[in-house]
Structure formats: C-alpha cells, structure tokens
Design goal:
The structure is a homodimer. Chain A has about 150 residues and is mainly alpha-helical. Chain A is about 65% helix and about 10% strand. Chain A binds a DNA duplex (30 and 30 nucleotides) through helix 2, helix 3 and helix 5.
Chain lengths: ~150, ~150
DNA sequence: TCACATTTAATTGTGCGCGATTGAATGCGG
DNA sequence: CCGCATTCAATCGCGCACAATTAAATGTGA
C-alpha cells in the first residue's frame, strides 16, 4: 500500500534472487563439508574429480570450460590434488602449451568412496529428485543466459 | 538403457543441482561485477550495504545472521567499507562487546546510485519477475532445509 | 621463412569464506 | 559479590575466485 515500499522493493535483500542463490550455494557448501572431509577434498576439488571421473586425461582448459573456472583458480588447486596423489600433471608432448590431467590409481579408487555423497546431499535437501531436477534445469537456463550476456 | 550409466548418474556433473547453483552464483557475480565496479563495491560488500540501507546502525552479529556470514568474513570486509568512507564502526556503549555499523552520508547517498542495479540484473537474466520470484522461493526453502540439517 | 597474432598455463595481488582460536565484556548461579 | 560460562568481535591460516600480466608454444600470412 505504501508507494515508498514498492519503489524500494528491488533493493530489499529478501527480494533478490541472486542472494537466494548466493546463500543457498553457501548452505550446500556447509552440508558438503563434513562429507568431503572424509574424502580429503574441498568442494571445488570434488568438482574437478567429477570431471575427471567422466573424462580422464583432459587438458586444464577443458576442466576450466566445464566448471567455468580459469587457470588462476585451477593451477594451484590442481597442484594440491597432485600433492595429495590423486592426479598427475604432464605436459602434452603433441602441444606443449597444454597440461594434461590424469587420475592416479588413488584418484580412480576415490570414486567408489564418493558414491555415497550424492545420496547424503539428496537426503539433506529433503526434496524429491523431480523437484531438484526441475530447479536444476531452470538454474542452468538462467546461468547460460547470464553467461551469454557477459560474453557479449 | 545401460544400467552402468544409471548407477553413475548421481556422480555426473550435469546431474548435480549443487553445481547448477554454484555455477549460476558465479555467473551472477560476473554480471554484477561491472555494475558494482561503478559503485566501488564487491558483491558481498553490496549485500552488506543492502542490509544497512534497510536497517542502519546494527551490530555486526545482525548483519552476519542476515547474510549467513561470520565475523571472520565480516570484520575485514567492514574495515574496507570504513576505509572507503561508506560506514562507521563504533563500539556500543551499552554493550561493549558489540560493534555497531552505521552509514556515513556517502554510504546513504550511494543508495540512489544503486537503484539501477536490480533492473540491469533483471534484464541480463532475460526472465520474468514471476519466474525469478518462483525460483527464489524454491531456493530459499531449500536453503533453509539445508541450514536446518547443518544446525542439527 | 619469419614477423606477428593466438593459445595455454602459470604467476601475482586482492578479496572473500570459514574453521579455529583469542580476549574482552557481559550474564548468571550460588 | 565472585567465579564461571556465554557472547561477541577480532585474528590467523588456508583455499578458492578472478583480473591482469607473463612467458612459452603454436599457428598464420606475407
């Protein structure tokens, strides 16, 4: 009823979808933390492992495109995964600009221990798979539109 | 059809809602960046300003509860906002454990320059307000369930 | 072939985000 | 009133995230 309130509505924290996404991302992180601690991984490291479990032996560039991360983020992260004996980094002999990331046997076997993680997350979300899947699709569509704007 | 694929589905990056949220949050950040650069703010700083534009003179604790951030994050961030002359930090005389955060005149007037930000974000999302509002509500509900799990 | 642009990863600097700890101020139970 | 737990902000350490720069390798056109 107050016109003042309507004019201010866009600047109210509770009205911003972006804060909803931002705060939900952090909430997920807090749920993941104890689960990933058992694997010795951080969440971004877990994402890299997910990529490698799908496609082993890929260049840093590919991982970056998949996760929307650049070398400034990935290079130190990958060095930590290498120090943890989960991956090996080797220059591509065919194109020495590229560094290929390959799983070690430990990195491969970690996949089995990681299988229980998604179920725990699903349980914590207290949501049906259908609901989550629908939200996921909406989010991905939104993300792709946002990235299209940034990429001009 | 392959049973193998079904068993692996939960570990596929593309199937994880959490990665959808994570990557959408980063996409939002990239869209916000040039807009907030004009205000001299980072996104978390912008969130703090949103809180203060709603309730001026609040303790650090309140800001933290509103944004789900702790003093380890907020203390240095608030010092930077103070260095930028947007806020003032003063010990509460009634309870000297608390630090009250108040807007400076510059901090208050920045609100006017910030009014155009939400429209730009809305335009970049290429989404109706109704759609965004529905997603926001779903996300907040999900976030609150996740936080409830973490809080035991 | 050779200058020049492009691609790729690494590096540097700044700012979160959070767990863990510290220390001061307050509240409270006896 | 006094000891003790609690609350609150600050501090420290680590790991992202990203802009900007660097340097090496590759691709390209004259």
């Amino acid at each position: 009823m107050a016109k003042k309130q309507a004019a201010d509505a866009p600047l109210l924290l509770g009205n911003q979808i972006c804060f909803a996404i931002y705060s939900t991302a952090h909430a997920f992180n807090r749920v993941y933390k104890p689960l990933l601690d058992r694997l010795g991984l951080t969440y971004p490291q877990y994402l890299v492992m997910l990529v490698l479990w799908e496609h082993d032996g890929v260049p840093v560039k590919d991982i970056g495109e998949r996760l929307f991360l650049d070398s400034g983020t990935l290079t130190p992260l990958l060095k930590r995964l290498e120090a943890a004996q989960l991956i090996k980094r080797t220059r591509d002999t065919a194109d020495e600009r590229q560094v290929l990331i390959a799983l070690t046997p430990q990195g491969q076997s970690l996949r089995e221990k990681a299988r229980t993680v998604p179920q725990s997350i699903l349980a914590a979300s207290a949501c049906s798979i259908a609901e989550l899947s629908a939200m996921k699709n909406d989010l991905v569509a939104l993300r792709d539109r946002l990235n299209a704007v940034v990429g001009e």
